[in-house]
Amino acid sequence: MLKYNFKYELKLLLRSRWIQVLSLLLLFLFGFSALNGKQKIEIRNNVISNAKEEARENDVMMLKLLDSVSQGLTVSVPRWTIPTSPMAVGNYYPRVAAMDPQPLAFIATGQSDLFTPYIKPKVSGDDFTLNFTEMTSPVQLLFGSFDLAFVIVYLLPLLIIAFSYNVLSAEKESGSLRLLLSQPIRIHKWLLQKLGLRFFWLSVLVIGSMTLVFLLFGIDFTSQLGTFFTLLALTLAYMLFWFALAFLINLWVGSSAKNAVSLIGLWVVFVLLVPSVLNQLGNSLYPMPSRTLMINEMRTKKTEVSKRQDEILDNFLRDHPEYALNDTTQSRGFYHRYMASQKLIKEELAPILNTYELQLQKQQDLVGRLKWISPALTMQESLNKLAGTSTSDHENFRKQVVTFAETWRQHLMPFLYNNKKFEASHYEDLPKFQFKRQSIATGAALFFLFSISIGLMNLGLLFSGSRWKSSKLIDS
Hints:
By secondary structure, the chain is mostly helical. Helices cover about 70% and strands about 0% of the residues. The radius of gyration is 31 Å and the shape is elongated. The protein starts with a helix and ends with a helix. Residues about 470-475 have low confidence and may be disordered.
């Protein structure tokens, strides 16, 4: 029976032009979304490259100025920007801390359209002022990005629904169901074979289209083969979930119209409603503190600290004797007091910032725990992780930048407090930022998608037997 179904289903799909239409449609959707994603990545790469090129040019200028000063020549730049001062190096010649796009970043925009791809930490900046803000227009953020993840998560289920909603109901409405039920095969087994074959052919088209698109866009399979196979496995698992839903609806509902409405309703629930509800639930349970009040409180704290900078400097040098070696000869300038006060400001602002970050972390943890309610949300998060554009990836980048900002500041502070000039020989020792990507974990998502799909099919098989033995259903 399976062999007959295979031949009949292939002929039926070819004559109805389903395979031809799906092939062209998938090629267009995957191709256009990949092109759109690649363009966004090129823009981000250009932004980062320009920032690094500007930093290289500044470094060349810095070395030339240091060489001129060492030879006793006069330089035509403002006094406070001469790089013999460590604070001038720290403020006017910063390093670029960049989050370079991953090789498969084009498949999912994720959070990358909300946050800047690089930061230039300065010694006079505060950690909380490191600016991780949105880079695109509100209109673009409203409509989102047409990337490969959007096609897989939002559009591919609609194609599956159109491809499978009336497999059984069409037989019933055409009058051939009586003949089918007279054959020595159970109806749910026949339906499972039909949908299994459609899943097979659609999987072939998806794998072929995705592979062709990746080849056209020059993806290096030798280094990204494992990630590519993970992407295919996630896509097939997500497709299997929607085919399992179609199997359940075909057995339980009835007419083609009701099947279509039921599946579209489930698509709205899993793809649109559940993510929105979880987002609102997080905002309600863990509301964010007022950002305006937080900024005002920060300014008040900084004003209070600035009034007692001399006292803070004395205490700072007492706690850090290594910085007070030349205290009898050095003058107490602005930066001596300012840098000493920064540590106290950071300590006093820590509770305010921790409250803000704690609420945000609670919201993210809530969504992380409840994302399993929606396979679409699970799939989107997994694709974002593969692309390196997930919320956790950007939070990892932010933490690394904050750490590097402190490293940059601590590297130059001994020069300041020991009254030591910065020289060209110290250039190679300047800290450099290297972004370290966190490990990718998608095994739980794969297990969840496959498990829920198998569970739905078993549920259909368990409760469908008595329904299709009823003579009323056979006569209908």
